[in-house]
Amino acid sequence: MIRVRWWWPAVGRALLPIGVAAVIAVVLAFLLLPIVALVTYQPLHDLINGIGTKVATDAMLVSLKTNAIAFAITIALGTPFAFVLARSRFRGRSVVITIVELPLVMPPAVAGLGLLVAFGRLGLLGHTLRVLGIDLAFTQAAVVLAILFVASPFYLRGAIAAFEALDPTLIDVASTLGAGPVRRMVRIAVPLAAGGLGAAAALAFARGVGEFGATILFAGSFQGTTQTLPLAVYSLFDANLDQAIAIGVLLIIVSAAILLSAKLLVGSWISSRTSPSRAARSIFAPS
Amino acid sequence: LVAGCGASSSTSSSHPAATTTGAGTAATGPGDQATVLAAASLTRVFPQIDPHAKYTFGGSGALETDIEQGAPADVFAAASPKQPAQLYAKGLVTKPVEFATNTLVLIVPNGNPAHISSVNDITKPGVKLVICNATVPCGDYARTAFKNLGITSAAMKNVVSQTTDVTQTVADVALGQADAGFVYVTDAKAAGGRVTVVHLPAQAKPGTKDFIAVVKSGAHQAAARAFVASVLSAAGQAKLSADGFGRP
């Protein structure tokens, strides 16, 4: 039998904080090191010049435009979809939820292939689209579709969860007071779930900005039309590593800004909300 | 003859014994495999020449960057003299050896939706043309062909996407997304019945040459030299010919 020495627990207690600190340091160092390496790869002057090049600004514009469109569509269609799905129980609901979640775990390259064989010229809808005079091949619309497919499920999943977390009686009360479904959603559910919706929207937007695999497969890569920031990084990797890294740093700054503003938004929303009853009172307030 | 010539020029003087290793066959065991970074156009033929080597296929330009950044590699095979020559100038690889030639062709999807019957048709308005990036040999060659034909500005106007290696260009055309693309005749052959080849006129054809070199920092120098020797051997050259490559 092993004799446990009396001082062992004391040593354990003393070592624990050191161990915890070491683990935290290793994890943080691992996550930060690539970012530090990218930022310090070239002199700051070259980095700023790289970010200012035509290929970088073109990619920035393409990224902003396609993501803004995809984001607007995601919010406009995704919010009512999530609201209805969160509030209804029907056979096959879990199947619907699984369909929503599938793109989250699908490799982006597979998503790109799927879009190709669905919406491509020779895809399932290729003939229909041609008849309608629509040719998505190598267009910005294809970039938007790729971002929508890959990023919108992040919003849908988060929004469904946010709406599900609401006290259903609040919405039922609004219903008994004569609020229609649209008003119930816009005036009651969305303000109450704003924190969760904001976080989900930020996640979806950030994922969309970083989208690469589906876009390059489905939309191709061409400066000024379909070449988003991640595609520019990939395209420049062999031609001009300094410039590729400069655009990579720009992408990190954009992503960090999205994350930070989302956190600030959600934070200010939580602090401005005194209590759930305030939202509940708004049901009774005349409008 | 080919094997002897190639092997001697690719072997550094400090390892004269290497010329005898693996001439004709891959004499490498599983414990001493060469890591081969090769152009995407060699994806099918290289594993037939040596099934034991570890391969990374990609655009020659990206592979060049990998080697510059110190990626573990023993052999570099490019679809152009340019990238190996640049690495040779930096002292990173041995003197590159030409081991095959290839032919640039225009491919169109089956059914030829844009009705392209000659290379000059790619300048028609609305044609969706895909080429490789300028830093990848297939993109470099395509631009040379445009220049030789005097259609650079009209052709570049129709380019809707630029890829980072030739296999992506093939895929874009085979899937019917693009109306036409510039690839190697070997890739067109591999795409089977999904694309139709439109040959370029002789005066438009750029000289497409494949070069191979041993990476000096590689951990498997003997295996690397054996690999180069097997590519240059009669058996290796026969495999390359069967895949549509020309003799150097």
Explain what this protein looks like in three dimensions.
The complex is a heterodimer of chains A (287) and B (248). Chain A contains 14 helices and no strands. Chain A is an all-alpha fold and 287 residues long. In chain B, strand 1, helix 2 and strand 2 form a beta-alpha-beta unit. Chain B contains ten helices and ten strands. A five-stranded mixed β-sheet of chain B has the order 2-1-3-10-4, with helices on both faces. Chain B has a five-stranded mixed β-sheet with strand order 7-6-8-5-9. The radius of gyration of chain B is 18 Å and the shape is elongated. Chain B is α/β, with parallel strands linked by helices. The interface between A and B is medium-sized, with 20 and 25 residues.
Distance between the termini of chain B: 12 Å
* Poorly predicted parts of chain A: 274-287
Percentage of helical residues of chain A?
over 70%
Following the backbone from N to C, one meets helices and strands of chain B in this order, namely HEHEHEHEEEHHEHEHEEHH
Query: Main sheet of chain A?
Result: none
What is the residue-mean pLDDT of chain B, rounded to a whole number? Answer: 86
Assembly state: heterodimer
Largest interface chains and counts: A-B, 20 and 25 residues
| Helix-strand makeup class of chain A | mainly alpha
Strand order of the largest sheet of chain B: 2-1-3-10-4
Distance between the termini of chain A: 77 Å
